[in-house]
Amino acid sequence: MNWKTRLGEERHLNLCGSRPIPGGISSTTWAWYLRHEPARLHRADLVGHLNTFLHRQLTGARVIDPSNASFTGLYNTLKLDGWSSELCANLGVDTKLLPEVLEADRIGGVITPEAARRFGLRAGTPMMTGIMDGSAGMLLTGAKIGQLFNVVGSTDVLALCTDKPKPHPRLLTRALGVQGKWLQVSTLAAAGSAIYWARTQFFPEIAVKEFPALLHDLSSQGAAASESVRFEPYLAGERVNIDQRQGAFTGLTLATTRTHMLSAIIESLTHASAERLPLLAATGTKMLRTVAVSGGSDRLDQLMHRDWPGRWTYRAATDATMRGLGTLNPRNL
């Protein structure tokens, strides 16, 4: 996918809000199929994401919401006005394969008699278009302009709700899915997964439930606990870089211990978490000082917020995706 020469990096960013990075938008997957499995695409009738698939199976409808459409890399995310003919032409996409874009709270279709029999549902039950999990979590917070929503887990996702999106090459800009709002997102692809990879590799004798005590002890000591060791936190790559980065330790000596290496991982992640705040602030949307936090098991959220500059209040948002979905009030077409 030679997107730099065919469309241009800046143009692509300002159309769909994100760069075409594998793991960030699905147009890269489409490009792969065009190159390696063109016959499969030739036989395809509809291409979309999970909510598109579920609607086709359950209602027969061909729909997708703006949050999922943003993730395709083919949608006019910055204008919320449909599929981009320019982005589609750049990739060679037949727009006949794309679903209709409806806001997440719209009724996309009703359960068909066949699906009712197959899945044990009631025929005629209306089904909303649906929405991305991160957007659902933001809805639970109230989706106020300036709200931060931080999902702390294997991957650490920090999203800012805005009504004035400002694309940045190091951020993902997504439609919220309803209300004509957007999310500007910064992701650490390997956060909790990096820490528990270290437990498996370096401290297998320590039980999972006992490991947090060691983490927080090292975190309280700061950089001094890692001695000269440094870590690049890219064990799962980076979602804003075409040339994928990899995790790496530097500063190792014969005196280096496994504790130094674990401490280096903690320091790199806490610093990377804090470095996202000025990046989000540069978009021009004033951030509210109360942060909604989902996940954070084993007090991982305390580690990730340790170096955040300024004063913040953190509010737990448990079961954010399911409860956020519950805030959607269905609307007819």
Task: Write out key terms for the chains shown.
single chain, 333 residues, alpha/beta, Nucleotidyltransferase, domain 5, 2 domains, six-stranded mixed β-sheet, two-stranded parallel ribbon, 14 helices, 12 strands, 37% helix
Quick synopsis:
The protein is of the alpha/beta class and 333 residues long.
Task: Explain this structure.
Helix content is 37%, strand content 15%. By secondary structure, the chain is of the alpha/beta class. It folds into two domains: 3-128, 2-Layer Sandwich (Nucleotidyltransferase, domain 5); 133-321, ATPase, nucleotide binding domain (Nucleotidyltransferase, domain 5, 2-Layer Sandwich), CATH 3.30.420. The longest helix has 24 residues, at 258-281.
CATH architecture designation of the largest domain: 2-Layer Sandwich
Distance, first to last CA: 37 Å
The major beta sheet can be summarized as: 6 strands, mixed
Name the CATH homologous superfamily of the largest domain: ATPase, nucleotide binding domain
Strand content: 15-25%
Radius of gyration: 22 Å
CATH class of the largest domain: Alpha Beta
Question: Which SSEs are present, and which pair or pack?
Answer:
Blueprint: H1 3-6, H2 9-16, H3 27-36, H4 38-43, H5 50-58, E1 63-64, H6 66-72, H7 85-91, E2 100-101, E3 107-110, H8 113-119, E4 126-128, H9 133-141, E5 148-152, E6 156-162, E7 172-175, E8 182-188, H10 192-202, H11 211-221, E9 230-232, E10 248-250, H12 258-281, E11 290-295, H13 300-304, E12 313-316, H14 320-325
Parallel strand pairs: 1-2, 5-11, 11-12
Antiparallel strand pairs: 3-4, 5-6, 6-8, 7-8, 9-10
Helix pairs in contact: 10-12
